[in-house]
Amino acid sequence: MSGLLSTPCLEKSKHATLIHHIHISFLLLSSNHSTHLSSLYQQRKQEFRKLIMASKMTAEYEKVFGRFDTNGDGKISLQELSDAMSKLGSVSADELQRTMAEIDTDGDGFIDKVEFATFCEANPGLMKDVAKVFG
Ligand SMILES: [Ca+2]
Ligand SMILES: [Ca+2]
């Protein structure tokens, strides 16, 4: 049993080191403006987001995210958020827009897993209620 338990810990510290490395190159690249480096920077940024996601996304968040993301494309649209929120109780269009704006921090109109996990972490009480309804 202890052997089984030690694996996720190792994985976690490996992630932490990787995140650290990528974060450093991220900082270095962001100070340079050449086109080549800026595309590299975009790539790094994506890798960085994936790593953040891997370290933040717990099994519980995954499960709740899956309930919201009904078409399974890996992001939550305004319509999917609306469907999910109506299951929790009635919400006005205004509340829906505000919730979307609050969670969708990069403003692309969709909630991705990083944004979702960040919101879950910031609102543990709310997420418990949500998990009860969708769990
Ligand atoms: Ca979706
Ligand atoms: Ca977004």
From TrEMBL:
<keyword id="KW-0106">Calcium</keyword>
<keyword id="KW-0677">Repeat</keyword>
<feature type="domain" description="EF-hand">
    <location>
        <begin position="56"/>
        <end position="91"/>
    </location>
</feature>
<feature type="domain" description="EF-hand">
    <location>
        <begin position="94"/>
        <end position="126"/>
    </location>
</feature>
<dbReference type="InterPro" id="IPR018247">
    <property type="entry name" value="EF_Hand_1_Ca_BS"/>
</dbReference>
<dbReference type="Pfam" id="PF13499">
    <property type="entry name" value="EF-hand_7"/>
</dbReference>
<dbReference type="InterPro" id="IPR011992">
    <property type="entry name" value="EF-hand-dom_pair"/>
</dbReference>
<keyword id="KW-0479">Metal-binding</keyword>
<dbReference type="GO" id="GO:0005509">
    <property type="term" value="F:calcium ion binding"/>
</dbReference>
<dbReference type="InterPro" id="IPR039647">
    <property type="entry name" value="EF_hand_pair_protein_CML-like"/>
</dbReference>
<protein>
    <submittedName>
        <fullName>Calcium-binding EF-hand</fullName>
    </submittedName>
</protein>
<dbReference type="InterPro" id="IPR002048">
    <property type="entry name" value="EF_hand_dom"/>
</dbReference>
